[in-house]
Amino acid sequence: MNLAALLKKFLIKTKKIFSPNNRAGNLLNRSLRFMKFVVIPKFKSLLPFKYNDEQKLLFSLSKRKIPSIRQIKQIKYFLDYKEKRIIFISLVFLLLSVVLLGGRFLWNNLVEVPKYGGEYTEGLVGQIQYINPILCQANDADRDISRLIFSGLFKINTNGELENDLVKKYEISEDQKTYIFILKDNIFWHDGVKLISDDIGFTLVAIQNPEFKSPLFKTLQGVIFEKISDDSFKLSLAEPFSPFISTLTFGILPMHLWQNVSPENSTLTELNKKPIGTGPFMYKSFKKDSSGYIRQYTLVNFKDYYGKRAYLKSIVLKLFGSSDFALEALKNNQVQGISFLSQDNYKEIENSENFEVYNFNMPQYSALFFNPKKQELLKDRDIRRALSMAINKKELAAELGSGLKEAYGPLDFIIDPQQDKYDLEASAELLKEAGWEMKDKFLEKDEQKLELTITSVDNNEYIKILQYIKKQWSKLGIITNLEIIPRNKITSQTIEPREYEILLIAQILSYDPDPYPFWHSSQTKIGLNLSIFANQNIDDILEEARKITSFEERLKKYENFQEILKKEYIAIFLFRPTYHYPMDSDIKGVDTKVIYLPSDRFSNIENWYLKTKKTFKK
What domains are defined for the chain? Predict the structure, then answer.
């Protein structure tokens, strides 16, 4: 078998490349045929039959059958021009074939994979107050940064499911009152100290201390911590509480740093601005403007993170006073992403090739919450009902744009909702029956005009909603005043002191759809019961539901709860939005589908990347 046949047989066995449609294989085939039918026969005609006596003697004296490199170099003196040309062309064809084969092999076997490095810059709206996992619940900017720095016992994954974080495994007693947890191995704080179960106990006790003023106080009140070892501990409940595991996603504080901070000074310590956590990123620096506000906050990759190490080397968070300013920064390449995109702004960049807009589903609703304690008129159920019937939710959603779904109750995403009735004439008739008469285009009763004030956060989308509602209610003769509060003041000046007659705001449920924090009467003063609504039947239902482990049975309770709530018209549920998250298209690896809080967009931050490298397929 000659050289060409051997080479061809070898290549066929190693890789099937000789398809007629394969350019590299076609070229190699032609090269091999040229060698087989032209080059090799030429040499056969020259060498075996034209030896003279001197050549025969030379061959007989030579012990080497294979020419040396020195001998090969002399071949140019024995070949004529035509023979040299044949060899040159053959070698060129062979070289091209090898190059094409190599290129094809690399193309089929090399893949692009993420590479460590790169800096991601994101724009946040608002101001930093407390980067502290037990104090940050009311501030989106604080909560976003805390999510990157701190770790909880559990976390929400990209599918909106609860999964272990600091916890390796856990057990629940038969009576559903005792939980035993075992921590993962080798978890370290950003300062190098090892995390132990004492840190969990300290954080829990801090939350339960009223002087810390943690928003988590009510949720975790009465939970008893007991240390078993440095790596294990027990939590005990007075009564079964089915959503308990889902409440343990808050970040853990380092006891060795916080134990020297008195509770009354917990909001003053520098640890709220320069925190130490166990999360995938750690604090590096921040920059303030001339007014003393933090305008830039920098985090760096924590190389000793117990989980999968993130690809990004650093994250820079720039803070803006409004979503419009943040959007302009995105358009001008000052940031690579912004924390939130309104429906209005979504239309501006949805078709841009420079950005990728991720749309996350959220168990969230925006609603008008009535405060009868601030406005006596709202104690009248007929007025509340008339106000609700005067809003056409489908028309409102159409005006605001795509991505909105009408809301008819707080649990629409798990309960088939009963749609509200829109009937402007029936609404006017209801007010007339309640004693309100039209005088000079305004409703009056006992020489008092029907005048209401709606308060909301400074947000273009909400302002559009307010203007629509004002227009609708004016058709009934209602005077509607609008009060817009800056985002960084809405919590402290309006929500916490309950300084509003009607409040337009969003509420977001957690992983477990427990409406207790929003509608139980115990939450009216310092909790999230924004309608200051107390109803014994609802209290009983929500308390009983927390003791039921079967979700199907709990769902029946929640259906009863929502039915009672809707009949009271204590709030007008408007819509359920989609969370739009725009990023530079260079950022890869974002794979989140469901979020419960805006900070959940970082649920797979360890997989985000900017840089890539080539490597062979495994």
Answer: 3-113 (no CATH), 119-361+578-616 (3.40.190.10), 364-576 (3.10.105.10)
